[in-house]
Design brief:
The protein has helices at residues 11-23, 34-44, 60-69, 87-95, 108-127, 159-169, 178-186, 194-208; strands at 3-7, 27-31, 48-52, 78-82, 100-103, 133-136, 139-142, 147-150, 153-155, 175-177, 218-221, 225-228. By secondary structure, it is an alpha/beta fold. The chain has two domains: 3-127, Rossmann fold, CATH 3.40.50; 133-228, Arc Repressor Mutant, subunit A (Orthogonal Bundle), CATH 1.10.10.10.
């Protein structure tokens, strides 16, 4: 039975989500501020967290950042739940490491479906473990420690840039459309636009490519999308 930590300062919302998730066979843990949430992650070891953005004591973004910086919790799936609906807020939430994003008011059925979707992707990753390191033309990636270097120089990437690089490098030579990249990197139920994919790819290239106009690793396939250079 998967354990879900629900974090929101509105008790009625927490109770509503908890009731419906438990009806679907999940167990739940409740928190009403960011500080308590971080403590419960250590003691309760949830399988997924539903996290409100606007929280007392420690806000949702800082809670998310703290989780992603800790090696023990870096893999905890996070669905961000908030009343903010602007695209920039969604992008910021995903940038700091959220796996999905739901805005209030929300459908409980939709939220439950997203919980199942995120947990399903996690189980698939555990079922088919991937290699720990990758080397190609001076680019070195350690998937476990999230360390990236180019020609021996350490590169610092955002969580989204890391996800993109991990995805591309694990599927060298294969062309992906922008929609396919969204499905694999952000999940098919996450709000992200084709334009945002281009922005993230450009940011990633600026970190790892020597020449942005003539990329060595992540190549543009005109009229379709992107691919990582074939390493065979």
């Amino acid at each position: 039975m998967s354990k879900i930590l629900i974090v929101d300062d509105e008790k009625d919302i927490v109770d509503l989500i908890s009731y419906n998730l438990e009806k679907e066979g999940f167990s739940t843990v409740k928190a009403y501020d960011g500080e308590t949430a971080l403590k419960l992650i250590k003691t309760q070891r949830p399988n997924l967290m539903i996290l409100d953005l606007m929280l007392p004591k420690i806000d949702g973004l800082d809670v998310c950042r703290t989780i992603r910086r800790n090696p023990e919790t870096v893999g905890l799936p996070i669905i961000m739940l908030t009343a903010k609906s602007d695209e920039i807020d969604k992008i910021i939430g995903l940038e700091v490491g959220a796996d999905d994003y739901v805005t209030k008011p929300f459908s409980v059925k939709e939220l439950t479906a997203r919980v199942r979707s995120v947990l399903r992707r996690l189980k698939e990753k555990e079922k088919f473990p991937e290699k720990e390191e990758f080397n190609c033309g001076g680019l070195k990636i350690n998937y476990e420690s999230c360390l990236v270097s180019v020609n021996g120089k350490k590169i610092t990437l955002s969580p989204t840039e890391l996800k993109l690089l991990f995805f591309f490098s694990r599927h060298p030579g294969r062309v992906y459309s922008r929609n396919q990249i969204i499905d694999h990197v952000w999940g098919d139920e996450t709000f992200i636009t084709d334009r945002a994919v281009d922005v993230h790819v450009r940011r990633l290239r600026s970190q790892i490519e020597k020449d942005m106009d003539n990329p060595q690793y992540i190549l543009t396939v005109r009229g379709f999308g992107y691919k990582f250079i074939d390493t065979k």
